[in-house]
Write a structure and sequence with these properties.
Strand 4 and strand 5 (80-85) form a beta hairpin. The longest helix is centred in the middle third of the chain and has 18 residues, at 357-374. The strands form nine sheets. A nine-stranded mixed β-sheet has the order 14-13-15-16-12-17-18-19-20. Strands 3-4-5-6 form a four-stranded antiparallel β-sheet. Strands 22-23-25-24 form a four-stranded mixed β-sheet. It contains 18 helices and 31 strands. It is an alpha/beta fold. The protein folds into four domains: 2-140, no CATH class; 152-186; 228-444, Rossmann fold (3-Layer(aba) Sandwich), CATH 3.40.50; 449-623, Ribosomal Protein S5, domain 2 (2-Layer Sandwich), CATH 3.30.230. The protein is globular, with a radius of gyration of 40 Å. Helix 5 (195-202) crosses helix 12 and helix 14 (499-511) crosses helix 15.
Length: 630
């Protein structure tokens, strides 16, 4: 029995050593780290002779010797050694407990040594409330009484995005980046501000009127005294016209615009040029503030000098604290605000580091409130993920007013500015820009970037066909290239055309036109890396494949416009007149269109021959040779 008690108390299997020495105001009760080998333990009374002490002061007063017992046991729930004193229970009406934390002792030479004492803190009742100090408070935070006014919340949270869960997870299921660990905090002390509270607190000094004083107004009252043509902030020059077209006619006051794109595509350059354009066109001298959390103001100034930006109304500031940004720009009363980027800024009262889901959402909400209350447009730069989506919650794109994507091939100097969301204009517009040493320049004739220079002695080339695509209000002439190579293992390598659409066109050529394409490896490419997503380019793809397979070159003054059906028929496409006018302006003499559009195209009054065809076979015979046998 003694051996069992020693094994339990020592916990030798866990290499755990403990010590305890208790004090009261009148007595000292030494508690040893380990039980002596021959100590006898009375299990009926729970008294161990080595853990028993006498109060000498009481003996002298009463003239008797009363034994006072102290029992010590290990509580696996609290992971502590707990001491109960029956004498103290009688004196103070509650069980006084002292726990010791785990302490590992190296070496067997420490066996039997008394370790330093800890203070015995007794419980006292004052004003009907129990107060604990010293070592009692160590474990009281963990084993606190359950009550309405005294609760401890134990939760599990992500160290990256700040999300909380009711159970432990190895990796955060929301952000898939951070790790989930246990969090313990007092519910009485935790009262975090949420969403609108944080946003309103950040922009409180900018509020023009109290929320309670805002009342609904009629449409006539809102539009009274305001000219819609002068309402937007206009951008000047060819670059400004290109950006204004994508934004829907200019910058709307109080709008929140998000610009995304791959790293190095030119997002910071684009917004720096926009801010300089707005600053130079400001008649009232209102400044534009460019805030960067990724670059210093010296680095921004160096880039501005390279782009020959010399305006005095452009202010630079480097900060990542939203509240600090609002405080610093308030005296300036800017005309526009640029934040580079939204993933680098943070709010102090929101948990998590800058860039996580909570911070991105709350910072965007604060900037949205700032823009609407001050009528100052705000531009944000957003990072993108590997899949090309803007980093952060999907809610980010729902909060903002405009979402612009900047696209461009890695080895190409051309950039495409596309609108995927626009509350103030069309999302079909496309801006074409070219990156140069002085920044982004507008491309006056976008069709030239999609056409190759035909450096050949012949006027005809095999496997090249001209098509037309429409983006918004603009038509772009594109060049489709095809190469058919006989091979035992037929395959398809497609770039710039939807794979499913290319497979459909090849299948129709095999079935309806009778071409033996099964034993050929087919390569398809759209020049300049543009993506052909609309069906109006089907006829140009079919003409390029037919030209390469038949080894019959196409004339370089002919274009193809039309959609191909599963039966091989040619169908009409929207904005046919705009497409035909685009190829006519570039000097093309002939254009193949569906038969149903031939009559209406002849009424345009252009110097171009319109060739109407009913199906693919008709197109092949018309273009290549009337006597060609397939």
């Amino acid at each position: 029995m003694q051996s069992s008690f020693r094994c339990i108390f020592h916990l030798r299997s866990l290499s755990l050593r403990r010590h305890l020495l208790a004090y009261t105001q009148t007595v000292k009760i030494p508690i040893y780290r380990s039980c002596p080998p021959r100590a006898s333990f009375n299990f009926s009374t729970g008294i161990n002779p080595r853990f028993t002490s006498f109060d000498k002061s009481d003996e002298e007063e009463e003239g008797t010797s009363r034994e006072r017992s102290v029992s010590t046991y290990y509580d696996p729930v609290q992971d502590r050694v707990v001491t109960n004193d029956r004498r103290m229970d009688e004196l103070y009406g509650s069980i006084s407990q002292v726990g010791t934390s785990n302490r590992e002792i190296e070496g067997e030479e420490e066996e039997g040594r008394k370790l330093g004492p800890t203070i015995w803190e007794r419980s006292s009742k004052q004003n009907g409330k129990e107060e604990k100090t010293g070592s009692s408070k160590i474990y009281s935070d963990i084993s606190r009484k359950k009550g309405k006014n005294n609760k401890v919340k134990i939760a599990y949270g992500c160290d990256n995005c700040g999300s909380e869960f009711s159970q432990w997870w190895g990796r955060c299921p929301k952000c898939s980046v951070g790790s989930v660990s246990e969090r313990e905090h007092d519910m009485l002390k935790v009262n975090p501000k949420r969403g609108a509270e944080v946003s309103e607190a950040a922009v409180r000094t900018w509020l023009r009127q109290k929320p309670g004083s805002v009342i609904p107004k009629t449409l006539a009252d809102v539009n009274m005294g305001r000219e819609q043509s002068d309402w937007r902030i206009q951008l000047s020059g060819l670059f400004g016209m290109e950006v204004s077209r994508v934004l829907g006619g200019g910058i709307v006051p109080g709008s929140l615009v998000l610009v995304g794109g791959d790293p190095g595509v030119g997002k910071s350059t684009l917004l720096l040029q926009i801010s300089a354009n707005v600053a130079e066109g400001s008649d009232s001298g209102e400044p534009i503030v460019y805030v960067s959390g990724e670059e210093s103001i010296e680095q921004i100034a160096n880039r501005a000098d390279r782009m020959h930006i010399t305006t005095d109304n452009l202010y630079l500031y480097s900060s990542t604290d939203i509240e600090d940004i609002f405080e610093k720009i308030q005296p300036l009363k800017p005309k526009a605000l640029i934040i580079d980027s939204i993933q680098t800024v943070y709010l102090r009262e929101v948990t998590g580091s800058a860039g996580n889901v909570s911070q991105v959402r709350e910072c965007t909400s604060a900037l949205l409130r700032f823009a609407k209350d001050t009528n100052i447009p705000v531009f944000l730069i957003g990072h993108v993920t590997k899949s090309g989506d803007i980093a952060g919650p999907r809610l980010l794109e729902h909060i903002v007013d405009v979402v612009l994507y900047m696209e461009g091939e890695r080895y190409s100097s051309f950039r495409l500015l596309r609108s995927v969301k626009n509350r103030f204009g069309s999302t079909d517009e496309l801006g074409v820009l070219e990156m140069s040493g002085m920044g982004l320049q507008a491309v006056t004739n976008p069709s030239e970037m999609f056409l190759t220079d035909h450096n050949t002695e012949s006027d005809i080339l095999a496997g090249l066909a001209i098509g037309v695509m429409v983006e918004g209000s603009r038509a772009f002439v594109i060049e489709v290239q095809a190469l058919c190579v006989p091979s035992k293992s037929a395959g398809r390598h497609i770039n710039g055309v939807q794979v499913s659409r290319a497979d459909l066109i090849i299948a129709v050529l095999v079935k309806q036109a009778g071409m033996k394409l099964q034993d050929n490896t087919i390569f398809l490419n759209v020049v300049s890396g543009i993506s052909l997503s609309e069906p109006a380019g089907d006829l140009a793809v079919a003409a390029a494949i037919s030209s390469s397979f038949l080894e019959c070159p196409l004339p370089n003054d002919i274009a193809f416009i039309g959609e191909i059906g599963l039966g091989g028929e040619l169908r009409m496409v929207p904005k046919m007149d705009k497409r035909v006018m685009a190829v006519a302006q570039l000097g093309y003499k002939r254009c193949v269109v569906p038969k149903s559009a031939e009559k209406s195209m002849n009424t345009l009054g252009i110097e171009m021959t319109i060739l109407g065809c009913k199906n693919l076979k008709d197109m092949i015979y018309t273009v290549f040779n009337q006597n060609l046998e397939i």
